[in-house]
Amino acid sequence: MPSKTPPSGAESRTGRKNADQITEDIKTSKIDTMTETTTKPKKSPATGQTLLSYGVQPYVSIDGENYMSEAQLVHFRNILNIWKNALLQGGDETIHDLKESAEIPADISDQATQEETFALKLRTRDRESKLLKKIEESIELIDNKEYGFCNECGEEIGIRRLEARPTATLCIDCKTLDEVRERQRG
To answer: Which residue segment(s) compose the domain that 16 sits in?
Structure first.
C-alpha cells in the first residue's frame, strides 16, 4: 500500500505542504525566500516598531539615579524625535504614492480597489497625524520637566513603559482603571 504522505519537498493534493515537509525542506535548505518575506519588519513607522528597529538601545539606569534625570529626558527626547521623523518621512512617501498612482484604471473593480487603497492610506495618515500631536505634547512635557509622571495620580509612569509607549500619560494602574471604566460604559 503506498504511503499517504508525499515524499519530502512534494506538495499535497491541495498544493500546500504539511508541517513535516516544511521542516524537512528547512533542514535541506529547499526554502528560498519564504522566511525572508515573513520575518522582515514592516516599514511603516506607525506600526509597533521597537526601539531597536530605530537603532535606540534601552535605557540603562545608573545606581542612585533620580527618576527622569537629565540623561533620561535626553533619551526619551531622542526616541520621540526619531519616531516623529519616521512618521513625517512616511507621510511624504504616502503623498508621493498617491500622486504617482493618480491614473484611473479602466476596469471598475480595479477602480474600487484603488479607491479602497487610497482610503486606507488616508485613514492611516490621519492616525499618524494624531500620533504626531501626541509626540509633540510629549516633547513639550520634556521641555517643562513634567514628562514621565501620570496625569491622574502623579506617580512615575516607569522607564520601561515609556520605552514601550513614549507618549503614555498614565501609569499602568490608572490606564488599567481607565480601560475597565471604558469597557463598562460600553
So the answer is: 1-36
